[in-house]
Amino acid sequence: MTATKGLEGIVATTSSISSIIDGVLTYRGFDIDDLAENASFEEVAYLLWYGKLPTQSELDGLIKRLGENAAVPAGVIDQLKLYPKNTNSMAALRTAVSSLALYDESANDMSKEANIQKAIKLQAQIPTLIAAFARLREGKEPVAPKAGVSIATNFLYMLTGQEPDQVAVKALDQALVLHADHELNASTFAARVTVATLSDIYSGVTSAIGALKGPLHGGANEAVMVMLEEIGSFANVEPFINAKLANKEKIMGFGHRVYKNGDPRAKHLQKMSRELGKLTGNMELYEMSVKIEELVTGQKGLKPNVDFYSASVYTTLQIPRDLFTPIFAISRASGWTAHILEQYDNNRLIRPRAEYTGPVDQKVTPIAQR
Ligand code: ACO
């Protein structure tokens, strides 16, 4: 038995949800470039769950259902109030999503219908939890979700308590489309491993959030912003990046296990970053990002991934830095739950082997002689 570090190149399941073939990402056979330009996040969530794009009335039905399910139990809000003031936002989300199960009587109902309902409920409640967490830590009361509006609109509304700007809504919606699913990424795999034991959907999504939190995965978007803040100015980009590369340090937001010629999502976020910069009259973050790309690609051949330009996009939308990865979770909840439903439909326990590299033939010596 020989281990493959990081399971690189290992095909662990079949799936009909999304594919990455020759650098092209598709959801249910639709190119991400087409979806990014021509579909809303709710259409994409419907596509991931049901395998087809919705008709207008199916879309209206889904938006209505998301709205009806967006409120979170008062007990979960009470718990959020008790979290320590400086709680990490992804740790808060992980804990809060886990606690949602305690208030759902159907949490352990494994029927298909109940699981689809829970997928929609989780998709609707995750934005509410994140917005409530963000407000409570500032000493503000949570804002109740609105019915009949998109998730992008509702999230920005619940975060600020104000009607969001349409440019911001459009940008966030497109970012949600781009992050919705990504084949067998680390968090989706974590979700599938968890539910393959026939554990419940809340456990699967909680596992996924734990995996997404890390800086090698979803946490990279926040780490990119930390780096941009540390660099501070366009003039400092070159010395900063050169020093990092000379020290063989990783530059967050670059590289990918699967894409070696560039992440197809990155160009959309780059365009968005440029357009938002122009609109707000502040191009500095965009220009710093382009310069970083020029240096990292030039010297290491590494291309930006989905996380790189999302940092400047979210900052320009005035979203606090530590909500970047939770926003990723809002979007990926659609993919996680679609994969969980697919796993239940054709389940087998996921239980690989390990190549043992430890000592052999050990004998227990009495404790006094050790
Ligand atoms: N900066 C500098 N060097 C890098 C980077 C980077 N961002 N990424 C990879 N490399 C180098 C590694 O140091 C390594 O070099 P070596 O062979 O000389 O040791 C080589 O490229 C291969 O890198 P691995 O880390 O082994 O590649 P792996 O496929 O395991 O990792 C990963 C992929 C985790 C995305 C990696 O590129 C990385 O750490 N990037 C930065 C974090 C990041 O942006 N993560 C978000 C990914 S997208 C997402 O999850 C949403």
Automatic annotation (TrEMBL):
Keywords in alphabetical order: Transferase, Tricarboxylic acid cycle
Pathway as given in its UniProt record: Carbohydrate metabolism; tricarboxylic acid cycle; isocitrate from oxaloacetate: step 1/2
Catalytic function, reaction form: oxaloacetate + acetyl-CoA + H2O = citrate + CoA + H(+)
GO cellular component, one term: cytosol
GO-annotated biological processes: carbohydrate metabolic process; tricarboxylic acid cycle
Keyword Transferase annotated: yes
Sample GO molecular function, one term: citrate synthase activity
Key word Ribosomal protein present: no
Gene3D superfamilies: Citrate Synthase, domain 1 (1.10.580.10), Cytochrome P450-Terp, domain 2 (1.10.230.10)
Pfam families: Citrate_synt
NCBIfam families, alphabetized: cit_synth_II, PRK14034.1
Record family assignment: Belongs to the citrate synthase family.
Protein name: Citrate synthase
Underlying gene: citZ
